[in-house]
From TrEMBL:
Xref: SUPFAM superfamilies: GroES-like, NAD(P)-binding Rossmann-fold domains
Signal peptide boundaries: none
SMART domains to which the protein is assigned, alphabetical: PKS_ER
UniProt keyword list: Oxidoreductase
Domain of life assignment: Bacteria
Enoyl reductase (ER) domain sequence ranges: 10-315
Gene3D superfamilies in UniProt: Medium-chain alcohol dehydrogenases, catalytic domain (3.90.180.10), NAD(P)-binding Rossmann-like Domain (3.40.50.720)
InterPro entries in the record: ADH-like_N, ER, GroES-like_sf, NAD(P)-bd_dom_sf, Quin_OxRdtase/zeta-crystal_CS, YIM1/Zinc_Alcohol_DH_Fams
Record's protein name: NADP-dependent oxidoreductase
Record-level Gene Ontology MF annotations: oxidoreductase activity; zinc ion binding
């Protein structure tokens, strides 16, 4: 099979297309023939930074070749021992082994069956691959950590991005009042996802417009999280994707009795089934920004690195 191998962290040109043996499956795993792969900011981070690579891929001692990627949609070709929920020929999708090595930038992927869900019939493989790490993050943030309830107000930062565009739709599905932030070029996109209000973060200070959010989803570095505390009501919740609630941030949150979570998404087949069922009813859709061919995967990395403005970047096999 063909796979993109990384031997040395650096630019996108370090991803080399090579010929490898198909992976062998272990009990509990299935062999998936990849049909589409999605790219995330973490893929770029791991490709560029050897500390990030160690932290996220958790390689064995002495390992010097790596296959990146976690988001996969494809067709099951082989079923391992102890797998009861899937059969050969099933179309599936999921985030494979996060944190750990997903080994997804390849024509065939060995994936734990309990991290996958059946792809909805009318969802394309590209749309399904897109709705893995980013959609799982939105689901686990809003449902698992925030326990978002009908009628609550949620402020979703970067609402046009991979995570944000799923979060807006999931929050609306849960019956929340949604305020999304983004740049002016993404205003119509954010409102089209169902957001009730939009804030142009480049023109306005969001914390001067919102001070009573029940929940804030914050995926931005810097002083952003401190400002998000101002936008949250006393006793509310903030889910941060990048920053810890320590030091000044922790103290400021505590003074307002705000529960702060720094979450890390994790592979979970049960959550993938929830995402699949929302996609099947049309409550959740993937917006594909750009779709690349497999050989152009390094170009997909370059676009993600340049700053993905809205939706998801995917690769079709
Ligand atoms: N902890 C976790 O488990 C976890 C999981 C997933 C992602 N993340 C992290 O969360 C971040 C977002 O991920 P993603 O997949 O959504 O990225 P993405 O698809 O690249 O989208 C980023 C979005 O942020 C917007 N943006 C940038 N600065 C902004 C600001 N100050 N205010 C509002 N919007 C802003 C960008 O568009 P415009 O500026 O053009 O509007 C773009 O829409 C990344 O850093 C990623 O690594 C963490």
């Amino acid at each position: 099979m063909k796979a993109f191998i990384l031997r040395q962290t650096g630019g996108a040109e370090q991803l080399k297309l090579e010929e490898l043996a198909k992976p062998a499956i272990q009990p509990g795993e299935v062999l998936v023939k990849a049909q589409a792969i999605a790219i995330n900011p973490i893929d770029v981070f791991v490709r560029k930074d050897s500390n990030a690579l160690k932290a996220f891929l958790q390689p064995a001692d002495g390992q010097d070749t790596f296959i990146l990627g976690w988001d996969l949609a494809g067709i099951i070709e082989e079923v391992g021992a102890d797998v009861k929920d899937f059969k050969k020929g099933d179309a599936v999708f999921g985030m494979v082994n996060f944190r750990g090595a997903g080994n997804v930038y390849a024509e065939y992927v060995a994936a734990p069956a309990d991290q996958l869900a059946l792809k909805p019939e009318h969802t394309s493989f590209e749309e399904a691959a897109a709705a893995c790490l980013a959609a799982l993050t939105a689901w686990q943030a809003l449902v698992t950590h925030a326990n978002l309830q009908q009628g609550q107000k949620i402020l979703i930062h970067a609402a046009a991005g991979g995570v944000g565009h799923y979060a807006v739709q999931i929050a609306k599905h849960l019956g929340a009042h949604v305020i999304g932030t983004g740049s002016a070029a993404n205003k119509d996109f954010i409102l089209s996802l169902g957001a009730d209000e939009y804030i142009d973060y480049k023109q306005q200070q969001f914390e001067q417009l919102v001070n009573d959010a029940d929940v804030v989803l914050d995926p931005i570095y810097g002083d952003h999280l401190l400002r998000s505390i101002d936008a949250t009501k006393k006793g509310g919740r903030i889910i941060s994707l990048l920053m810890d609630f320590t030091g000044a941030i922790g103290e400021k949150a505590k003074a307002k009795d705000i529960k702060g979570y720094h979450m890390g998404v994790s592979s979970n087949g049960k959550d993938m089934r929830q995402i699949a069922s929302l996609m099947a009813t049309g409550a959740l859709r993937s917006h594909i920004n750009t779709s690349y061919s497999f050989t152009d995967l390094p170009k997909a990395h370059q676009q993600q690195e340049a700053g993905n403005s809205h939706g998801k970047i995917v690769v079709k096999l």
